[in-house]
Amino acid sequence: MNDPKTAADNTEKKPNRLINETSPYLLQHAYNPVDWYPWGEEAFEKARKENKPIFLSVGYSACHWCHVMEHESFENAAIAAYMNEHFVCVKVDREERPDVDQIYMNSVLAMSGHGGWPMSVFLKPDLKPFFGGTYWPPQPRANMPGFITILRHINDAWENRQDEIERAGNELTRVVRQMSAPESDSDVALDTELLERAMQTLLKSADRRKGGFGNAPKFPHAMDLRLLLRLSRRFKSDEALQVALLTFDKMANGGMYDHLGGGFHRYSVDARWLVPHFEKMLYDNALLGNAYLEAWQLTGNDEYERIVRETLDYVLREMTDPAGGFYSTQDADSEGEEGKFFVWSLAEIKEVLGDEEGTLFAASYDVSSTGNWEGTNILNRPRDWNEVAKEEEIALEELTTRMAAAREKLFDVRKKRIHPGRDEKILASWNGLMIATFAQAGHALDEPKYIDAARKGADFVWTEMRTDEGRLLHSWKEGKARFNGFLDDYANLLDANVEVYHATGDVQYLRRAEELAALMEEHFYDIEVGGFFYTSNDHEKLIARPKESQDNATPSGNAMAVTGLLKLSRLTGNTQQEELAWKTLESLSSQFKQTTMAGGQSLLMLDFQLGPTYELVLVSPNRQETDEALSVLRQRFVPNKVLITHSADDAVPEILKDVMQGKTAAGGEITLYQCDHGSCQRPVSGIEAVKKALEEL
What's the pTM? Predict the structure, then answer.
């Protein structure tokens, strides 16, 4: 499962410069008649030398409309010829170059008020943008201008109205630089009142019938859901809890969840979570796996545990490289059709299951002869299974058992279909998110295979995606790591290594986290106003040096820097790391007032910092008693904690000496030390007393 284009498609075509790239997205365009260049000095020098504008096209391999624009325009010989004559054409994979994507997406947002992919931007040879948009059809259609018309207008302006282009380029660049440097607001207090206002904002935007926030299209909002779980506890708000749980239920029962193979699609195009955008992204499954894990810990709902396990098993089965890293995406399309791999007809269901089981499955998963989407059926569960069981006059337990068997049969048949394409590049940042989720789930569920996946993933990045000097590289494919690491690479992997330490007790991961924290501070921190730049201080010079302050589909780099630094500081006693994290939160303060729903991860860590935060140290001479104590803690919803487990027979590692000072197995018994910001309670000794103390957290 890789690039769905076959070699046979390209036997008569001459490749362009993208043939030497490793990105599956760029390779998909390697046989276009467009004379594509990858982002780099060769293209820029050509634009300067020939005094031509640059056409920058940015997308990613799982993007449906990127494929549409390629087929309609970039494979069109006449359009390609015009592009080649009048422009220097540059193609970028946004997942490989998120810095370029951020900067020029800001220019599109400034021009049009909305963005998306494919992103299409026209630049001067000095890389200043002067016009842009997203998808354009080849000819005018449905109030959209035609791409060839736009190309002609841009060429005319370039040849005859250079003064207008100069003004537009300068003004857009000024706006992009302003958007890249969010301002802090000293009037915004980082306190519990801010958290309560954030909760009220989320509640006001919640859909109380169908779950989620706002109207269609609906996105998962994993960080906001986790925030509601915490704030429901902090403010004793059953309303906040019910909004979160309704959304968890609707997403898991809807078509956005893959009921046969596990894992979540990107988002729902409708308000009731039926029709997904069918691509599967590694980061969504990492973030939602983590969110459902916390929902299970808080409620004990076995359905949430099932979703976690099925999602992580999907990643292990279909998104894991043999060497240990995790792949990026699976496409929405197969055989040229969006969603074809995932949908079913009633006849297909009955052919596999037989008439009786097929009819029961259809009643359980909303399958009909007419279909629920474009004449086919997206599997989903709009009806409560208690109702289905009553209607079919069977016990709920029998229905659940029979449907599990039916899903397995259908999954086995589906495996024989032509699979969607898979982007097998391994990104450090997204791997960090997935490693952390595997570690947390493995620890909470006491599941060794998940802990093993977390450890292997962390080891893969550490050994395969660093320079000889120890600096991170962003992307890996087919044995080759490329591109300077970005802030979220460092921040996500810092947090991931902390979580692998939590799950394994192996102090090497804590040392790696400390090393990443030091590199992140040295190369990304803004010593003037606080916060972290997205690119390092020795990165390629671009028209702006952005500071990523808002969550999008993934948590912002600054929010994840705060996450990793606060956890690490509580484990090691390094107050400088805590100070950096707090200054970073202060630098993000203005966004909390303006766009609460873009700051979920930052607010999670504000909740962590305001406490109570449990700094737990378990010292025991007996591994069996340690495991017995941890079994109590694992299943409890105690998100604001750090944990050190230490064998009384072992020497204290240097990195833990400050925090471990004076902490021993009192009287030779397992002993729990519980602190918060250096204020410690009386130690508790003996297995029963320790278990009782952990149950009361």
Answer: 0.96
